[in-house]
Amino acid sequence: MALSAADVQTVYSLLSNALSLDESARKPAESALAQCENRPGFCSCLLEIVAARDSGCRDDVRLLASVYFKNSITRYWRHRRDTSGITNDEKNHIRKKLLLHLREENSQIALQLAVLVAKIARIDYPKEWPELFSSLAQQLQSADMLASHRLFIVLFRTLKELSTKRLSSDQRTFQEIASQLFEYTWNLWKNDIHTILQSFSTISQAITLNSLVEQGHDLLLVCERWFLCLKIIRQLIISGYPSDTTTAQEVPLVKEVCPMLLNAIQSFLPYYSLFQERQVRLWDFTKRTCTKLMKALVAVQSKHPYSFGDQTVLPAIVDFSLNKITNAEPTVSFFEQFLIQCMVLVKSVLECKEYRPSLTGRVVNESESSLSLEQRKKNISTAVADIIKTILPSDHVILLCNILIRRYFIFSAKDMDEWYQNPEQFHHDQDMVQWTDKLRPCAEALYIVLFENYKHILSPVVISILHEAMSSSPPLETEISSAMLLKDAAYSAAGHVYYELSSYLNFSDWFQGSLAIELSNNHPNMRIIHRKIAFILGQWASEIKGDTRKQVYRALIRLLQDNDIAVKLAACRSLCYLVQDTNFSENDFFELLPACWNSCFKLMEEVQEFDSKVQVLNLISVLIDHVGGRISPYAHQLSNFFCKIWEESAGESLLQIQLLVALRNFVSSLGYQSSICYSMLLPILKSGIDVDNPDSLNLLEDSVLLWEATLSNASSMVPQLLDFFPYLVVILERSFDHLQVASSLIEDYIISGGVEFLNRHASSLAKLLDGIVGNVNEKALLSTLPVIDILVQCFPMEAPPLITGVLQKLILICLSEEDDHNPSRTAVRASSAAILARVLVMNTNYFAQLASESSLAMHLQQAGLSINQNILLCLTDIWVDKIDNATIIQRKAYALALSVILTLRVPQVINKLDDILSVCTSVILGGTEEISEDDSGGDTTSSSAPNNEAIGYGGISVRDARMRQIKDSDPIKQLSLENMLKENLKACAALHGDATFNAAISRIHPSAFAQLITLCFFPLKSIGSYMAGVYIQQFLSTFVMWLEKSNVREKQG
Questions:
Q1: H helices present in 41-144, as ranges
Q2: Percent above pLDDT 70 for the chain
Q3: CA 1034 to CA 319: how far, in whole Å?
Q4: Where does the signal sequence lie (predicted)?
Q5: Upstream peptide bond of 126 is cis (omega within 30 degrees of 0)
Q6: List of long-range contacts for 239-243, beta carbons under 8 Å, 24+ apart
Q7: Confidence of residue 343 (pLDDT cuts 50, 70, 90)
Q8: pLDDT range class, residue 1032, cuts 50, 70, 90
Q9: Is 558 exposed, middle or buried (0-12, 13-18, 19+ CB in 10 A)?
Q10: What pTM was estimated for this model as a whole?
């Protein structure tokens, strides 16, 4: 039932009770509100409460009403089938009333109202709410300062929401909005900045505190409105015009706006230090403003690089940014966020591909318009490249490189204090933080881009700084001096650009002559250099050759035993890089494994941060993966470690995911010896695959993969693993997300579990397969059909009666005629037909019973398939028709099944003798004795993809060996089609009588018949050439006599 105006007070009471600290009042109120959410009129009641600011309503209740209002709009504004939601009349009422109550004094409620308008506008503008922007613009004309500020909040939120719509029509609509709103917003922005700067100038002249308080609130509102205008202008330029990289057409607003933004930065920047102590709120505004202005310039350059590259825009902005980076002005020296944005802008310009002149020739074979577009782009790129050369001549490039290394790479006293207080947190702040969040990582990112652009100029410069730092700070130094900090910075610079410096610096000489000596200096202050050496060893991994590599392994393991966690973690990461490097030597590393394991285990106990634990686990996992089968002597030690970490990480699912990955590598490396870790592994596995586990949502995927690795490497099926199969049934009943891996698991259970598995879980397996076939798409079905095929192969007598329902579904798939121009569906039909052929060959009596069951006829009728002949005859047509779509082993299964069909009491089969013998002949001629495990037929004969295989150390995996054995013992592969066909032709003649049989034979083309007789009765490859000639002569004489008796007048071809 709909709510009305009479219910407003009731809703208000519920909202008030929902804020109560008394649970007995709060819970019923929350429940009642939840029940009201989808009732018509609820949003109107909430709007009445939000708008009743002068009626004595509490602000906290109004704020809660605005939150419920926003959530209800999100859920029910669009039409939904399951609820009546919000009617069109109510929507009209809400849209009109919202625009009348935007002047909200409470800033939190004002923000909620702005978000509300934006969410509605995303759905309704322009079709249902065309007057939105005109109404807002009209209100702006007569608004006071507060109302104007609130309206600009609404404008900004609405434009931000609309700018994210990606349809071409929506983008054109946004461009129209931009053309209408820009001029007014831009003029207001310019007026407000004039007012703000005048007020700032007055304040800076030390006006008395009382007068400041009197005008402070209005000034702050002007500041905030101006700030919103800036955001809107940025949004209009970025989203209101297509990128000039696609059109090569100038965006005029860029030339107009960007210089003004730069002037604004230059005007505001002096007030940063001036207001820092005396005017905290204005200082905060200044800080936000300068940073936001630089971010706006970065965004415009990224969206419209060609327009930004104009002579009136790019030189001044880049030169300003470079000056702020290179000149140590007190005004900005401690303004990190602003300096970061200056570096981001310079980096963005240097790495902009549109500013790099094209090295290709003229474009040919294109339309004239395309040629002119490319030529315009090329001309602009060349012009901008010349501007950048002017801004950044060689001496400026060298200066910038020196400043970055000598100033921004150097650790400050604050950095050293943070390191001392919390080494682990310091390590992650320096190495794993987003590069735009902190100054040093941002400087390093700019340095890397600068070096890539000017490598020939800067390589000697970096080498020079490196030699200078090494000579001024000897290896045995113990004091944290400026020289030591410069060496740390130089090592950072050398580590980041190793790929170029290797031509100037021989790593082996550097390591032996300096790094190794510094590593032998165990003074606590050397942790600075030790951590950076660890970084270098990881970065230069590809350049470490020969005997030096083993020394580097030893050095990193010693660093893993350092007293400082930051050093240990740096060594941990670099050792991981070295192990993953293509030059990794198992022989050199093997003797170091005990010390490495112990160091990793100890480090895991010491660290507290999640990222640290993941880093250590990743190293252990990588080591296990690369050491391979040599891991077995340490299996017990590793098992104890994994068991302990799993118990300690209870509730930390992200860490347990990493542990499951390491366990998968562990099991794969152990291979057939993996059972030695079952006491640790199986309880963990059981916990991970249990869908009732609270963490199953996070752990299930990796647990299922670990389950696959466990079965793939199991030398035998232990009872505990057999007990796990019901978990797989539950998993697939809930979702088919893990179907591909599940198919591999079922295969392993069938092959390794054997009769015991079938005896225990036959009904569950049949239910599982029946739930899959017919309920998944073709791709998923292609991963499941091989499982059914292997099941029938391993249990030809027991399995088919268990999966009667599945086989009936396969018959329906085969008889459907919907696979034209659909390769996946064709593959499904071909594989289904091969399974049915296998059943017929290996369990003929059952198949005859299956084909005649009344339930099958009922299913065919329900599927709309009209069958006018025996099912066996229909399948005969399928096997004949799909022979060209089948793999080699499937083709042989078809031929064997067709051969068996000849012996069944189906009178009409004699009419298909020509087609049957044609298929059999083609299969015999195609050769079947060369079928091997490599004949996988794409995705249709093995359910597990190659990347899911657990590859054992030193050769074939346990699972591969089992699959090869299964394929080699396949009766389809071992049966002789020639012999079976010969015997079945005799049985066919006896069954149908000589007259009928000879009549059918007479319809076969003589050359085809001769070919068949030769293949089945005279295998020429097994006799000599003389005897072959004798046999052929005898056969031809007999064949001519047969032709005369049959009155066949057709000439021999």
A1: 42-51, 59-76, 88-100, 107-124, 132-141
A2: 89
A3: 100
A4: none
A5: yes
A6: 239/159, 239/163, 239/171, 239/174, 239/178, 240/174, 240/175, 240/177, 240/178, 240/179, 240/182, 241/175, 241/178, 241/304, 242/171, 243/303, 243/304
A7: very high
A8: very low
A9: middle
A10: 0.81
